[in-house]
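Re: [help] complex structure
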Amino acid sequence: MKRRNTATQEAVLSVLTSKRRAMSQDAIVKQMEVNADRATIYRILNRFCEDGIVHKIVADDGKQYFAVCVKCDDIPVLGNHFHFRCTKCETIECLPTLVEFSVPEKYVVQQMNCVLVGICKDCS
Amino acid sequence: MKRRNTATQEAVLSVLTSKRRAMSQDAIVKQMEVNADRATIYRILNRFCEDGIVHKIVADDGKQYFAVCVKCDDIPVLGNHFHFRCTKCETIECLPTLVEFSVPEKYVVQQMNCVLVGICKDCS
DNA sequence: ATATTATTGCGACAAAGGTGCAATAATTTA
DNA sequence: TAAATTATTGCACCTTTGTCGCAATAATAT
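Output below.
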């Protein structure tokens, strides 16, 4: 399944990279000048996830948010970091804070989804 | 708004306390012998949350799970603990592991929702 | 026993995501 | 460059989760 370049895909990626935040599908379309079908956006985002271009966060509102996997401020943002949802500006960002934990005997951790909720630096 | 005792409420609470796991609405009804309306279950669960009897977890599947606020194994399970979703037995449990973190300057954390995903001790 | 009002059931609704299928268009091949 | 291949899209439709209004029911207080 070789990938192809399309305008919609580039638009989605462009929005995500410029905003530097985790965004929901509807937030992404709002920022796009090109308009595309909802289902298409979801398919593009899920493809990006498979390819490791973006990662998915499920916030405490139950919605999926997508963020580009980039290094911010020279701190590598890998899988195991906290996400921060600001209740004032309604954005979700990747914190450089790594999630540290230890689980009881015999538990195997494969993924994680950690969201802190509060007021971000710009709103406090 | 004084609370009243009803059979449905007791049934919900009974299921949650006996299972000792975080359960979704549909999982709860399946375990109940009394049958009640979906909306009613949700209202009961949200009331329990308000009263501090149960707490709500939003898993990485975007669904709400509810767990009784109890002490397990002599370890107090308060707000700031990890949750563990087992992909094999499809349950979510409260880990005794507390969430430890430090956020960058000027961030104010008010809540958190941290879910680890993998294989639990019973399934590994 | 009656009045008060919390709780329930029903119906309807909205939002978020996903899917199948035919049409479109980006690559590849000739 | 033109034709063939097949990844991607748009559309329609569907499912699940969760909420809400309102009238009916039933738990408590009087």
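Residues 1-4, 6, 8-9, 36-37, 39-40, 43-44, 47, 62 of chain B lie near DNA strand C (CB under 10 Å from a C1').
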